[in-house]
């Protein structure tokens, strides 16, 4: 099956997945995770790319990013992050060569209906992978930032959640939302969209994006199930 080309749309969030080359381990220690996370914070702020959610797994990353009016900033961000992490690991290991797959996967996400669903999907990735029993037990995702008061919280505010209140009330609302889990239907839709660089949203969203970019993006249903891989299958 031919691979769908990647599309970046201005002023929309994008679910991003980038994997280690040949599924190799990218993060072998807490220091590795922290190095990437520090770079994600500083580079996203420098490029004015909003970060809504993230999860750093052993051999891949999930990110939910909005490039704003300049879609090229998203590819620039991913290139910078990949390059910095590659140089960091190569220096540690006294080696040379690639660390990541050549291309990251990207799925533009409908804001009003699917942004929160993608945040929940991303924060629950360690639970689905059997690494933790609860999202709060995993330190390398956006979940702790959304559910605890912290001066270090640099994530962008989530659209459509003003009615959640502020402070502890807002944090509990997000925790309760994640605890509800992702329905099998939503899981299949989000998973298929990111694997195929397709849109994550309704038919109305497909029509809207077609008007914005001047072409219609093909939407295909789920294909053959993929085998589980280390640190999660998605």
TrEMBL record:
Location of the Transposase IS200-like domain: 9-125
GO molecular function: DNA binding; transposase activity
Superkingdom, taxonomy of origin: Bacteria
Gene Ontology biological process terms in this record: DNA transposition
InterPro entries (UniProt xref): Transposase_17, Transposase_17_sf
Protein name as catalogued: Transposase
Organism of this sequence: Thalassospira alkalitolerans
């Amino acid at each position: 099956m031919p691979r769908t080309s990647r599309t970046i749309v201005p002023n929309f969030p994008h679910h991003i997945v980038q994997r280690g080359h040949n599924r190799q381990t990218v993060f072998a220690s807490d220091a590795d995770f922290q190095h990437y996370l520090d770079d994600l914070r500083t580079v996203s702020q420098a490029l004015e790319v909003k970060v809504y959610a993230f999860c750093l797994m052993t051999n891949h990353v999930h990110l939910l990013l909005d490039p704003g009016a300049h879609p090229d900033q998203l590819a620039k961000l991913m290139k910078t992050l990949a390059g910095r992490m590659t140089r960091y690991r190569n220096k540690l290991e006294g080696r040379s060569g690639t660390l990541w797959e050549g291309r990251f996967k990207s799925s533009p996400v409908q804001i009003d209906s699917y942004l929160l669903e993608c945040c929940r999907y991303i924060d629950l990735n360690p639970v689905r992978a059997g690494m933790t029993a609860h999202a709060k037990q995993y330190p390398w995702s956006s979940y702790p930032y959304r559910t605890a008061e912290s001066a270090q919280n640099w994530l962008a505010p989530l659209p459509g959640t003003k009615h959640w209140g502020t402070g502890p009330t807002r944090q509990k609302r997000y925790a309760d939302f994640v605890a509800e889990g992702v329905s099998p239907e939503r899981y299949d839709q989000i998973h298929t969209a990111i694997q195929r660089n397709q849109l994550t949203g309704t038919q109305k969203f497909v029509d809207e994006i077609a008007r914005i970019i001047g072409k219609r993006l093909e939407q295909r249903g789920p294909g053959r199930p993929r085998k589980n891989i280390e640190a999660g299958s998605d």
